[in-house]
Write a structure and sequence with these properties.
Radius of gyration of chain B: 22 Å
Shape of chain B: globular
Oligomer: heterodimer
Helix content of chain B: 40-55%
Number of helices of chain B: 13
Order of helices and strands of chain A: EHEHEHHEEEHEHHEEEEEEEEEE
Shape of chain A: globular
Number of strands of chain B: 12
Largest interface: A-B, 23 and 19 residues
């Protein structure tokens, strides 16, 4: 089978490609060039970050040569800007906390790149994600968490549809990280000991606020920090600098710790309060994807995950009109954050998910 | 090693990017690598042996250009030859007050970047515009020349579209105003007969790897009496024009390549021209929304540059490579980015047309069967790319 592997230069996608090649498939390594490495801002700062830098592309190319597969670089700068970066900036300016990786997966990798794979006569597109796909007797595809639950990445893959899953492959999803690194060492891949990238690929220093300010200087709209009653406690330099549940950087002094409870972008207000006020037992979500292709008829018992590092909590969910859903947790969850994803699980299986309103 | 078991047959159609070594070139180079290793500047036997090999190579290169061996400076390639010519002449003429340089918008980066560098150091640079034909109008040069023009640099044949500039006419115009004329003949050497006297130029660059010689070799021809201040300083090799101990085996290769090219030039020109014409006509007929970029003539016989509506060249290149067909878009030096070719842009072609362009450049290995295969493979590939809306049809 001809398979395109999305190679980031990291150990997971490298081993994914290597394993497929070992199995005798016709593997084509493709790296996405997502931003102009030379791009700097007016002040000379590098406008973009590290993942998929020249060094990462070099690593991918070297791995491809080591395992004996062709390697191509596809330029997705404008698509990345349009689908991922613009969305990221817009969300922050609107007081929401985005997840660019999910958009990248569903709108770039498993859309644009999948189309490229079709163009190159490949049957499938493989990535190094920790996730698993199974097909049942009726032909329907199911998405499961990766076998290594410390590395599971299904939180970022909830938007995948049946059509996308039919052509997707996750060659390392059934392995744990140590085994993946062991394969890399066995195959003498230069990336065997390369550290995982922890940050969002285009903001390597983790300073999302500064990134947003560079991209959208108009985001710098000062405003007030208020308590639940509306009393002004302080000022801030832009709502994009905050996320729900944030405690540091509020610029306030108070006897008890205060946390961001709510962001009101129109009023440029950040509402803070004590930790107890952070719990929410219900949420609604938009642009909900149901992996099976069909929304459930009625309330469904699930466990719901509202952050990448969040233990899925028992809840029930109901699909509403226009691709929306409402969800009720059994117990209040801390820091339900607009812009993040809520992903619905049945045990290890991903039933679907959406964007928290 | 790259596995090629999934690709049955490979067809190379990127000879303007580079060429494989002629077998005789490889053979002579290996001999020289093993046996002629002396420093050509040494007095003793080993030096004399090396010097003799260089002399022979120099004569062969001179023969390719209709020049005298004493007028040939060996370099490491076209880029270096261009740099020595332009920087060397510009610096030599500065003292005389001539600080104006003229070049064309369709030059190779080796010329354009050098001009930009000199502009940053205070030279005034005029860039002559091109039009959709890809051929410069001599009047443009006439208008641009001044009494303080030091040097005009216009390429003989363009690497991307293959069009040939009216060098003899341009050189004469430059001389009327006392300016020197340099031509980058990297893409015409070995494809068109070259005669430096007939062209009337003062400086001419060539590169070995474009005519089945090794990469890392080239030459600069300069007319006797032309003064240069060489940019690279060191020893006195190449009559003080290019310092550094000579890479004799590589230059032996350059000489053999020049000799072989000279001998088969006329025959190959006819053969390649026919293959190119059939390829071009075949694609234009079979792929709706395809058109040629640049004038049909005068062109080097091996090149055709086509734009295909509704697809991006990146996808075409990869799709063709997976089918075993090697071509390029833009110039080899700039692929990997989505920057439109500066040549096509300078010709005034629309953005969409520049993004969907591919260049086929034929050479010794190509046969009728190759052409047939491309004409069979390309149309269905284009159709498939066009049907994928995210791949084709981008604004």
């Amino acid at each position: 089978m001809r398979i395109v592997v999305a190679m980031s230069g990291g150990v997971d996608s490298s081993v994914a490609a290597a394993l497929l090649a070992e199995q005798g498939h016709d593997v084509i390594g493709v790296s996405m060039q997502l931003y102009d490495q030379g791009q700097t801002t007016a002040t000379g700062q590098k406008a973009f970050g590290t993942c998929c830098t020249i060094d990462d592309l070099y690593d991918a190319r070297r791995v491809a040569a080591t395992i004996g597969i062709p390697h191509y670089i596809v330029n997705f700068e404008s698509q990345f800007g349009e689908h991922v970066v613009s969305n990221f900036v817009r969300e922050y300016v609107s007081g929401r906390t985005p997840i660019p990786c999910s958009h990248c997966n569903s709108e770039l990798k498993f859309a644009e790149l999948l189309d490229r794979a079709t163009a190159y006569d490949a049957d499938q597109l493989a990535t190094g994600h920790y996730a698993r796909i199974e097909q049942d007797a009726s032909g329907r595809y199911h998405l499961f968490r990766g076998a290594d639950n410390t590395k599971d990445q299904t939180y970022f893959l909830f938007s995948l549809t049946q059509q996308q899953l039919a052509r997707a492959a996750f060659p390392v999803g059934h392995l744990d990280k140590d085994t993946v690194r062991a394969h890399a060492h066995r195959l003498q891949l230069r990336v065997a000991s390369k550290p995982d990238s922890q940050e969002i690929c285009f903001v390597p220093d983790g300073d999302y606020a500064a990134f947003v300010e560079r991209q959208a200087p108009e985001a710098l709209r000062a405003g007030t920090v208020v308590d639940g009653g509306g009393k002004v406690l302080g000022t801030h330099g832009g709502v994009h600098r905050f996320t729900i549940g944030q405690r540091k950087g509020l610029g306030l002094s108070s006897r008890e710790p205060l946390y961001v409870l709510e962001i009101k972008p129109d009023a440029a207000q950040v509402v803070v309060g004590p930790k107890e006020a952070l719990g929410r037992a219900a949420l609604t979500a938009s642009t909900v994807n149901w992996v099976s292709g069909a929304a459930p008829a009625d309330w469904l018992r699930i466990s719901a995950q509202i952050r990448h590092r969040h233990a899925a909590a028992p809840a029930r969910v109901r699909a509403n009109d226009e691709g929306r859903a409402e969800l009720e947790f059994d117990a209040p969850q801390t820091a339900v954050t607009p812009g993040q994803a809520v992903v619905f699980y049945d045990g290890d299986e991903v039933l679907g998910g959406g964007w928290i309103d | 090693m790259l596995r090629s078991r999934f690709v049955a047959m490979r067809i190379y159609l990127d000879h303007n990017a580079t060429t494989p070594l002629d077998p005789l070139v490889a053979e002579r180079m290996v001999e020289a690598l093993r046996e002629v290793w002396g420093n050509a500047s040494s007095v003793h036997h080993f030096g004399q042996q090396a010097k003799a090999a260089l002399d022979e190579a120099r004569g062969a290169v001179a023969g390719l250009l209709g020049a005298d061996a004493s007028e040939i400076v060996f370099t490491c390639g076209g880029t270096e030859s261009d740099n020595i010519a332009i920087r060397g002449a510009a610096e030599a003429l500065e003292a005389s007050g001539r600080r104006h340089l003229i070049t064309s918008a369709i030059e190779h980066e080796a010329v354009l970047s050098t001009m930009t560098a000199l502009a940053r150091r205070g030279a005034r640079v005029t860039i002559l515009p091109a039009d959709a034909s890809g051929i410069l109008a001599p009047d443009r040069l006439r208008e641009a020349l001044t009494d303080d023009t030091a040097l005009v640099s216009v390429m003989h044949a363009n690497n991307e579209i293959g069009t040939v500039q009216p060098i003899a006419e341009l050189a004469a115009i430059a001389h009327e105003r006392g300016a020197l004329f340099h031509t980058d003949a990297v893409q015409s050497a070995g494809k068109l007969p070259l005669d430096v006297r007939g062209l009337g130029v003062d400086l001419l660059s060539i590169a070995g790897h474009k005519f089945y010689g090794p990469k890392g070799t080239g030459a600069l021809w300069l007319r006797r009496g032309v003064r240069l201040i060489p940019p690279m300083t060191g020893g006195r090799q190449e009559r003080n024009r290019r310092a550094g101990t000579e890479n004799v085996p590589a230059l032996v290769g350059l000489g053999v390549a020049a000799d072989v090219a000279n001998r088969k030039l006329a025959r190959e020109a006819g053969r390649l021209g026919a293959l190119r014409d059939r390829l071009e006509a075949g694609i234009l007929a079979a792929v709706p929304g395809s058109e040629r970029n640049g004038a049909a003539a005068p062109r080097v016989p091996n090149t055709t540059n086509l734009s295909i509506d509704g697809v991006e060249s990146e996808s075409l290149l990869i799709g063709l490579d997976l089918a075993g067909i090697a071509v390029s878009s833009g110039s080899a030096c700039s692929s990997g980015t989505l920057e439109p070719s500066h040549v096509l842009k300078a010709m005034g072609l629309s953005h969409g047309r520049t993004l969907g362009s591919i260049r086929f450049s034929l050479g010794t290995s190509n046969t009728d069967a190759d052409i047939d295969h491309v004409i069979a493979v390309l149309p269905p590939l284009v159709a498939k790319l066009r049907s994928l809306t995210t791949v084709g049809g981008r604004k």
